[in-house]
Design a protein that fits this description.
The protein has helices spanning 3-36, 40-43, 58-64, 67-100, 106-115, 125-134, 141-165, 170-177, 182-193, 195-211, 214-218, 228-233, 243-274. It has 279 residues and is an all-alpha fold.
Length: 279
Amino acid sequence: MRKSTRMRLMKILIITGLLIGLVYALFPVVWMISCAFKSNTEVFTVPQRIIPRRPTLEAFSQVMTDRGKLRYFLNSYIIAMVTTAITLFVAILAAYALSRYAFRGKKPLNVFIIITQAVPPMTLLIPYFGMLVLFGLYDSYWALIVTYLVFTLPYATIMITGYINTLPKDLDEAVAIDGGSTWCVLWRVLVPISTPGLVATAIYTFLQCWNEYLFALCLTKSGEMRTVPVGIQLLMGQISYKWNEMMAMSILGSIPIIILFIFAQNYFIAGLSAGAIKS
């Protein structure tokens, strides 16, 4: 077999494999969209059809007109945005200290931050539950915000530290010569330059908070505090499942993530790759 023939055959196999993987990855999304535009009766109709027989916005209407379900979205936005803001602020300060200063215990601290990423979150559920009940934070926004910070801060600190490490220290010295303070160096010079890394970190943090289910389920009990993932699960009743509403909520819940990636994908890619380069 000629080399050109083997190369052509290899290319066909690779393309075929990629197409199969693409279909496998896209089918759940297509099915979700299909069910969202069906009535709940048609969802259970046999044989199933990808294209609805009678497309309807019934599921979206029921979600958008239900104050309880809209409250789930509001809760998710509040918790994710507040957690992201606090995470960025604290992680920037920690990353600057770890990147620019030498102090006793710096290496053990770095190792500890990395080790925290190896701890399964599920093992911390019961201790956090007891602590939040003790401090009267159970079933509140702060119950989830404080809990999520524990998981988002270490990774955000590692990510921003890697990015700041790529920035030359000459910038700090130049600002110091001009009479600028450390605070000025950080917030007026390094932070604006680090925008790609900060955006990537913010997107990751927002995603973690928006999609989290286990802690949102266990650390809240009232409908006023539930988030979108828990709200979707609550549509699964003992007698019947509202599949069309579940799919509609899933689509609406995916919109913020899609918007984030559309408008910030360049920053996200640059931020992820920059931290891996040492200047």
